[in-house]
Amino acid sequence: MAKPQAKFKLASGKAPVIVQILPALVRGGVERGTVEMARAIQAAGGRAVVISSGGPLVRHIERFGGKHINLPVHVKNPLRWPGLRHQMRAILTAEDADIVHVRSRVPAWIALSVAKALRIATISTVHSRFTAKSFFKRRYNAKLLDAGQVIAISNYVHDLITSQYIGVEDRLTVVHRGVDTDVFDPAAVSQARIINFADSIALPEDVPVIMMPARASLWKGHHILLDALAKLDDMRFVCLFVGAQDGKASFVQALTAAAKSRGLEGRFRLTPVVDDMPAALMVADVVAMPSITPEPFGRVALEAQAMGRPIVAFAHGGAVESIQHGETGWLATPGDADSLAENLRTALSLKPRARKAFAAKARAHINAHFSTQRMCDETLKIYRRMLAKNQKNSAARRTT
After folding, report:
1. Which CATH class is domain 186-369?
2. Domain locations in the chain?
3. Gap between the Cα atoms of 315 and 398, Å rounded
4. I need a surface site. Which of 22, 57, 62, 262 has the fewest CB within 10 A?
5. How many C-beta atoms surround the C-beta of residue 213 within 10 A?
6. What's the predicted TM-score (pTM) here?
7. Contacts of 6 (CB under 8 A, 6+ apart)
8. How far apart are CA 386 and CA 383, in angstroms?
9. What are the 10-residue block averages of pLDDT along the chain, 400 residues in total?
């Protein structure tokens, strides 16, 4: 990723310290975004500190000079929060933090009050759908909005927030999530990596591939995709449910039985989570994202388009913001298996020349609007505004 042009600069000459806090550094969009922002902070001349309960992505933070501090900020038991706040205060003081950026609700409950007491600028990012069916849940969610600046990862999330809470609009900014277009680049994926993935799942040759990369969760829409696939009985394909095999045994058994009951035996595969997703996407002729409830944004849609793969998703949530219907992908009627099948058929039927042109347009679209670089640059602008505001406030306090 290219370095931002402007460098962080504080009046004191100190490199600003940005502390990001999230439950853990495991796989996922929140975690990837945290790592990407830590790298951007370092590249901009700041110092990146990440606080979490740990995980496999810690090594990535440390690889480019960032610092990770282990603290169980994932603990949902409020009785433990006072002790964690005491530890948080000691950490933020020792690190001389200038900004605290929380990325989940429990970290918000633990860290925001501490940061405010220390007069540290605060930012939060809302990554989820942020809906509540009870007063308690609504109050629990609201803590994430108790920051000096709030970032929503999509217009959809922005609208959910403003429809439920008042007084946050002037502190709320949309920064769309991004995909690393250097990593998710067809030209960067070697034939050996593609072959390794295909061999790992014994993928048959010369059969069109429909791919659904998703967690093993019912709301992701595995079963409605099966309904749609059953309507394509005149077409050749194999469907890869990437990540589904890592689900609970009951989920895997139910999904397998549902596929067989629809006459899809031999036409689907369940695989574990894939470490080399760019290589996996290279074998896909079409990628499906049939989430039953709206995705807050939908990282799969970005990655598929960045790799030049046709994407078919339901027309709700964040998908409508990243997919241009008929241009970079297709948007089916939400919850409608017939519409999903029709759009999958269209994608599978693309001729080579049309597929190539489609891929180029999709990749250009992501590069222009949804790259990691763009996401980081927009977030760095917010950091700079918050740093400037905090310095101004500090100067005003010194003169009174």
Report:
1. alpha beta
2. 17-178+372-399, 186-369
3. 53
4. 62
5. 24
6. 0.90
7. 44, 380, 384
8. 5
9. 60 89 90 94 96 95 95 96 98 97 97 97 92 82 94 95 92 95 96 94 92 93 97 96 94 96 94 94 97 92 96 96 95 98 97 94 95 95 91 65
